[in-house]
Records
---
Amino acid sequence: MEDGEARSEIRRMNPNESTVNRRRLTLRGLPLTFRWLFSFFLLTIGLGYLFALVYLFLLEVEPHRKMGLGLVEATIIKYYGNRGNTRLEGALNGVMAEMIGPAERAEVIRWIRDGATAEGYEKVRPLFEKNCVSCHSKDSGYAVAPLTTYEDVVRLAELDLGQSIRALSRVTHIHLFGMSFIFLLTGMIFALSEVNQYLRLAIIALPFIAIWMDIGSWWFTKYQPVFAYTVIIGGALMGAALAAQSGNYVAVHSIAVEYFREGRHDEAAALFEDSLNANLSTEHPDQSMVLLTRKVLPQAYIKAGQEAKAEVSLEEYLKLVPDDAPSLYNLAFIKHRKGACHDAVELYQLAAVFSKDAALSARTHYNMGECYRSLGMSDEALRSYREALRHAPGDSLILDRIGALEGPRPGP
């Protein structure tokens, strides 16, 4: 160490500080290829769910919103039906409103309200053939009701009782099978995380409970519209559980830890950032992971030579844990290197108060003495050096500093 250089203390990750149980298989214990695979899978699942929400909004919410109906009313119409209306009229005013022009739609609705007679059908048949039959036919390949003949159309001109039992049975088994496999895979990955065990158990169970609530409520809503609220709550819980499992911050954090240990500090810092941002972007961030990531992120920045980012990151972390002595020291050291000695001294003093490690205490008091010496405060510098010597007896560099300030001793 060159004369006058502050002593640095970069806290490396201590395995004892981690919540990892070394006897349990965890994400960080898996080969990098598996963690890489899991991360891309979770990212893809997350994107898929976002587009599912977009599709749901465009198909189920937006058409009813244009009619002045809210989410609850739209859910009731879908499963319970609009029992003062027909299914065909409800579709023309709802999900199919954009598929037919206003004047043509009004003409078809007028025919429905006039009794949907066979004679009147001849007048509106060209409108169905123009706007509907391309999709609503047996040859189209779409799983939708055909509208190619009068008999097909008149069945939909009956009272709107919502989705049929047959349709509900079809979508129920598809969703139960499909979503169960998705939650099995995301749950298996999340089970390998280092989140608190009881929290893991709750988050693993939550999506299955939510999908039972969501899909079960479809059936209940068909007979009692008040259960539309349960449909919405179940869907929201399912989304929250999927976000918790596939938000990917746990997997990304584990990969970042491995990079840090391998000395790939720039990559580790970038992944720690991604992990933190992904966690904070969820509706209910995992605070234990937020705290852990904020603790190690400055270390990665420092090792990567990104002191400006490290300074900001340390300040953010110390707002949460103001008595963390190593973090106080590292922030003081950064400010010391920048020449902000007054700020550095305050932080070194706090680090000295909270430090429980002799080596860290010695470095803290030594660097505090260096700051005082730079500020021309010799008495304070001497006291700091002596305190450093108390924690590190016989340290030659500290003895040299004390000797230089005390001056040559008088001879015998």
---
Amino acid sequence: MSKRLWLLSLLLPCALPTLARAAHLVPCSAITDGAVTLYAGDTAIQAAFTPNFDFSLPGAAAACGFVGFDWQQIITTLPDPSPFRQGDGTRLTSASTPFFDPAPGGYTYCFVLSGYSCDSYPFYWNPNTTNTPWSLNEYEDGNTLFFYDSPADSCLPGGRGVGCLGLTAPAGSFLGFTTQLVGILPDGSAYPLPDFWTWTDTFNGTSGGISTTANFLPVDAGSGTGGITITSETGVDVSTPEPSSVALVCLGACLVFARLRVARRKALVQCL
């Protein structure tokens, strides 16, 4: 092999991602599939989407025919009694499931928690606002999109029944969720992508002194017991994540909270 060909063989693998992006040779599935890192702590669940092939978020969206990326979350299980009300005051019950989280019209607790509406339907973060606790742009950092949630339902078994007149759900009750990465289409609708996970939550305390589902703040320390369990990832039962994955997502969460600019979001996130 000539010296020129030998040098080309060394450089070509490094140049392929750039060449592929320039020539639009990478299919959307190769850019997005398997690009989500997920971790659940005791009472908080976090995820990070970083497109493959070194695509930026805007570049990946353009290659896929989207205007951006977001998350969709669906509450699949909600036990009675429930402390949660839509923005118009309608109480959500077990009969309401499944429904998007945040619910259409948002929740009444969002104003209490942050002073802003969380009406981001059908998305988790709101792509139509900026610089609020629920705005999509607050959770985009460089080439990565972040997800965070820390539900707190005081009406779950063993809780104080805040928002439920002191009543609690039967033993064994839990909140059930499905969360998925989605593309935002030009018409504003969501295009589901393959990466999703299912999870449950039994935390019976509070966050900011109230019960929450979609939530950008940590739970109130010492306010309850129970926690989060991831039950599947893209349809497959999950095992304990690799320490490197845990560190990556924890670091991502720190970056997210460092960038939050609303005064009431003074959350302390500890990453070991």
